[in-house]
Write a structure and sequence with these properties.
Helix content is about 35%, strand content about 15%. With about 300 residues, the chain is an alpha/beta fold. The strands form 2 sheets. Strands 3-2-1-6-7-8 form a 6-stranded parallel beta sheet, with helices on both faces. α2 packs antiparallel against α8.
Length: about 300
């Protein structure tokens, strides 16, 4: 298992990567970073405050997405010198254009429903989802670092001091496999994500972690591998397949999310309306079958 290495203060103090800025990032006047569930002070000042960030499609969110945060929190508590102060899901924007990707509006709604009704500490940040341009993972982590360590000035201790927060990416083992595959990730982004921030990796059935880590030895000190003590192989891809086949996904996806999917007719063969607003337009149009839809 990896251990805490380096000084969290070496993390960036501005939203940029080696001179690069977010690709035409949208700064909406309606956007504000969600802080209501973020712990503002630490219980153990001897530890380093840790923020878990999961980037992904979440199309739809599953119980495994939620469980990954709980597994990571347990791992941090018993195996590191970190103290978890919060966890965020950051759904990708519509610019990602992945097959089976529901609109950002729907995915934000589903992740919020899941976190609000099943967790006291997880939250959803809409910043990445509202961007018109695709934002690389490294840029997204810079955004969180800016909000937490620059705007908020880190996290408070009981003594009134403020400590810089360690920002880490939380992901499944399939991510570390892509990172170890030549040509998939740029060396610059790998060094920024794994060198400056770090990653908590949750093992997944069928993924060879050791081979992947062998190609990432220079960042091994900043990679923490979390074993699944109870194996869970559910994925959004499998959930979408079940839904298209009209099979039950109950107890694989939070019940309120299932209700949302059914209400908005997501992931069926005919394809859902592109957003909640398109659905409203469809309900007012004649005939309904001619309304704009997408897959």
């Amino acid at each position: 298992m990896g251990s805490l290495q380096g000084n969290p203060t070496s993390q960036p103090s501005d939203v940029q990567i080696s001179g690069r800025t977010p690709a035409q990032a949208t700064q909406s006047s309606n956007y504000s970073f969600p802080r209501s569930r973020l712990r503002q002070s630490m219980s153990d000042p001897s530890k380093t405050p840790l923020l878990l960030v999961a980037c992904g499609s979440f199309s739809p969110i599953t119980y495994l997405h939620l469980r990954m945060f709980e597994m990571a929190a347990d791992f941090a508590k018993y195996n590191t010198d970190f103290e978890v102060i919060g966890g965020y899901m950051s759904p990708v924007s519509d610019a990602y254009r992945k097959a089976g990707l529901a609109s950002a509006e729907h995915r934000l709604a589903m992740t919020r429903i899941a976190t609000e009704q099943s967790s006291r500490w997880l939250d959803v940040d809409p910043w990445e989802a509202i961007q018109k341009e695709y934002q690389p993972t490294a840029i997204v982590l810079d955004h969180f670092d800016h909000e937490i360590n620059v705007v908020q000035r880190g996290n408070a201790t009981r003594d009134g001091e403020r400590k810089p927060v360690k920002i880490v990416l939380l992901a499944g083992a399939d991510l570390i496999q892509t990172m170890s595959t030549p040509g998939v990730w740029s060396q610059e982004d790998l060094n920024h994500i794994l060198g400056r921030y770090g990653v908590f990796i949750v093992e997944r059935t069928g993924t060879d972690i050791d081979d992947a880590l062998a190609a990432l030895t220079q960042w091994r000190h900043n990679i923490w591998v979390i074993q699944q003590l109870i194996q869970n192989d559910v994925s959004s891809t499998k959930i979408r397949l079940f839904l298209k086949r009209e099979m039950s996904v109950r107890y694989l996806v939070p019940a309120p999310v299932i209700s949302y999917i059914e209400e908005h007719r997501l992931y069926n063969d005919d394809g859902p309306p592109s957003s909640i607003h398109e659905k409203e337009k469809e309900s007012k149009s004649e005939p309904a079958a001619e309304s704009p839809e997408f897959r």
